[in-house]
Amino acid sequence: MNIVVCIKQVPGTTEVKIDPETNTLIRQGIENIINPFDTYAIEEAVRLKEKHGGKVTVLTMGPPQADAALKEAVSVGADEVILLSDRAFAGADTWATANTLAKAIQKIGAFDLIITGRQTIDGDTGQVGPEMSEMLNIPFIAYVSQIEEIKEGYLRVSRMIEEGHEVLETTLPAIITVAKEINIPRLPSLRGMMKSKSAAVTTWSIKELGVNDKEVGLAGSSTQVVKIFFPQRVSQAEVLTGEPAEQVEKLIGKLKEAKLI
Amino acid sequence: MGIKIDQKKCTMCGNCVAACPFGVLDVADDKIIVKDGCVVCGACKDACAYEAIILEEVQPAAKVDANARGVWVFVEQRKGAIKNVAYELIARGRELADTLKTELCAVCLGHNVNEVESLITHGADKVYLVDSPDLADNQEDYLTHGLLNLIKERKPEIVLAGATALGRSFFPRVAAILNTGLTADCTGLDIDTKKRLLLQTRPTFGGNIMATILCPNKRPQMSTVRPRVFKKSDPNPSRKGDIIKVDFKKAGVTARTKLLNFMEDITEKVKIEDADIIISGGRGLGKADNFKLLQELADCLGAALGSSRAAVDEGWIPYSHQVGQTGKTVCPKLYIACGISGAIQHLAGMQTSDCIVAINDNPDAPIFQVAHYGIVGDLFQVVPEMIKKLKG
Ligand SMILES: Cc1cc2nc3c(=O)[nH]c(=O)nc-3n(C[C@H](O)[C@H](O)[C@H](O)COP(=O)(O)OP(=O)(O)OC[C@H]3O[C@@H](n4cnc5c(N)ncnc54)[C@H](O)[C@@H]3O)c2cc1C
C-alpha cells in the first residue's frame, strides 16, 4: 500500500488575536504547526502501512521553513518527505496549489491512496483535495470518518454528511479527505524523534517538477484576494439581572414580546 | 510576482509593516522586505502615503469570455426535496442578476424532484432540469459532469452553490476541470458594476479575517455560499419562467463511487438546519447526561438541540448537532446558548441568528459579544427555571 499524504504548515491560530490599535494579526508567539486536520491524515496513512505494508510519502508545498512540518511527520511514522518550494509557488490559490501537488504526485509515481485533511485552519477552503482528484483523474471521497475495508484496488469507507453517515465504495488509486473522527493521532516516539532529526527532506522546485511558472503560484491563480478586513464586533447584549427566577421572568417576557416564543 | 517596493520613494515610515494583516513585511538593512506568505491583498499599498508600493499585476493568460452571461444557482436536493440553501441563493442571485441586467437560472439535477416550479416563483427566470434515475442519490461524478456539460454549452458568467457537504465536495471538481477560480464558503456577494465582476467575501483564519476575492480573468466566476447567510424570499405565484428539460448525457462519465448504505442520525428530533429555535449546549454542561436538561427545554419550545465543538469532542452528543466552523451554520429565529463560551469558530456558525440568548456564569465569555440578551448565571438554575415557567 503506497500512500501519499498532503500536509500544510499553518499558523497555530487558536491564540490568534487582533491588535486593536493597528487592526492586524498579532503574530508574535504564534508558532507554525501542521494543519490539525492533516495530522489525522498522516496517522491514518501510518496505520494502513503498519497493517498492510508499503510506504508513506508526505508532501507539502510551502516556504523553506515548512521542512519543520515534514520532519514532524517523520517523527510519527512517515517514510519519505518531499518539500515543494520555489518563489514561483508563492501566492497560489487552491487551483494552483492542487496543480503543483498533482504534478509532484505524478513525479513520485505509483500510489494506491492519497489522503488530505478535510480543510485547513487558515485558508479553510477544503478545495485542494477535490481539485487534485480531477487533475489526477482518480475517484474522490470527502469527509471520511472510517476506512472500513481496503485491499488491492478496492476501498470502502464511511463518511459524514449533514444528515448522517454514508458508506461508499470505490476503486484504487483514489483520493480521500479525512475528518477528525477517523483516529487519534499518536505522539512521536523517542525513536521517531531520533529519526526525524536526521531525516532527509527532498526539495523540488519548478525545475524538478518540470512545470511552467505560469501554471503555479500567483500567476497560475484565477482568484485574487483584493481586500482584507477584520469583522467588527460590538457587544449590544442586554444583560438581564436579578435572581435566576427574575432573570428568566424578564427573558421570557422579552421573547414573548418579540413573538419569538 | 507579488509586491515591489520603490526604494527611491520609500521613506521607511513603517506604515506598511503595521498595516500588513499577515505580518509578512519587515525592516531589514534599512529597507522594507517582503517575507514568504504575501497574498498581494494590497493593504500595504493603501497604507503607503508615498506611492512606494507597486502591486505587480498578473497578466491574464487567457482572454476573458466577454460574452458569458447569466447568473446560475446549483439547486441542491436530497431524495427529491429541494434544500433551503437553493432558495437562499435564488433570492440573492435574483438581486445579482438584476444588477447585471441578466437572467437568473436554476440548475436542478436529480430524479423526480418536487416543486420545481417553486424555483421560478422564488425568482428564477429559467430552470434547467436534468432528470434521470442515475441522479437520484447525488452521485458526485454524475453531478460534476452534468453541471460541467451545461456550463460548457451555455456559458454563464457566475455559478453559485451552497457550501454544504455536497457543494464543498463536488463544486471544486467542476472548477478544476474548467480551470477557473472558486471562492469557498462566502458570506457576502456583491457586484462591482464598473468591471462587471463578482465581489466574493468570506471568512478565513477561523473567522478572524474577512477576505474579498475576485476572479477577474476566467469565466464562470464560481463560489460556494454558506447556508443561512441569505434569506429565502417570499414566493410570487404570478412569476413566469421556463422549465427547460435537458437530457442527462451519461456516455463518457463513469460513476467511480457507489453508495452502499446510509445511516441517518437518529438523535436529532428536530433538524437544526431547519429549526426556528435552537437550544445549544457547551462545555459548561459538564457531562453527557446534562443534555437531557436541554432536551427538556427544547421539547417545551419545539426546538432543536445544538452544541459547541467542545461538547462533541467530549463525546456528549453526536457530531450532527455541532454548530460552527467545522459543523453546521445555522440562522434560527432564536438561538439559546447554554454554557458555551463562544470561541470564534462557534460564533462563525451561529452569529447571524435573529436573536441570540447567552446563559453563562462567566461575564467575560465572548458569547456575550454576539448575544442580544445575556444572563450571567448558573445554567443549572436558570434552565430549570425556564422549563418551570414555560410549562406553568
Ligand atoms: C484570506 C485568504 C482567502 C483565500 N480564499 C481562497 C478561496 O476562496 N479560493 C481559493 O482557491 N483560494 C483561496 N485562498 C488561497 C488558499 O488559501 C491557498 O491556495 C492554500 O494554498 C490552499 O488552500 P487552503 O488553505 O484552503 O487548503 P484546503 O483546500 O482547505 O486544504 C485541504 C487539504 O489539502 C492539503 N493541502 C492544502 N494546502 C497544501 C499545501 N500547500 N501543501 C500540501 N498540502 C496542502 C492538506 O491536506 C489540507 O488539509 C485564500 C487565501 C487567503 C490568504
Folded structure, characterized:
The complex is a heterodimer of chains A (261) and B (392). Chain A has 261 residues and is of the alpha/beta class. Helices cover 29% and strands 30% of the residues of chain A. Chain A has one domain: Rossmann fold, CATH 3.40.50.620. Chain A has helices at 36-52, 67-75, 94-108, 128-136, 190-197, 206-209, 244-257, and strands spanning 2-6, 9-11, 17-19, 24-26, 32-34, 55-61, 80-84, 113-117, 140-151, 154-161, 164-171, 174-178, 201-204, 224-229, 238-239. In chain A, a hairpin with a 2-residue loop joins strand 10 (154-161) and strand 11. Chain B has three domains: 3-55, 2-Layer Sandwich (Alpha-Beta Plaits), CATH 3.30.70.20; 71-246, HUPs (Rossmann fold); 272-391, 3-Layer(aba) Sandwich (Rossmann fold). In chain B, 26% of the residues lie in helices and 27% in strands. Chain B has helices at 15-19, 43-47, 84-100, 118-121, 140-154, 165-178, 291-301, 309-313, 344-350, 367-370, 379-391, and strands spanning 3-5, 25-28, 31-34, 53-55, 71-75, 77-78, 81-82, 104-110, 126-131, 158-162, 182-186, 188-192, 197-204, 209-214, 221-225, 242-246, 257-264, 277-281, 304-307, 334-338, 355-360, 373-376. In chain B, the strands form six sheets. Chain B has a seven-stranded parallel β-sheet, with helices on both faces. In chain B, strands 19-18-20-21-22 form a five-stranded parallel β-sheet. In chain B, strands 12-13-14 form a three-stranded antiparallel β-sheet. At the A-B interface, helix 3, helix 4, strand 9, strand 10 and strand 11 of A face helix 5, helix 6, strand 11, strand 13 and strand 14 of B. Flavin-adenine dinucleotide sits between chains A (6-8, 35, 37-38, 41, 59-62, 92-95, 97, 101, 116-117, 119-120, 122-129, 223, 225) and B (39, 182-184, 202, 204, 209, 211, 213).
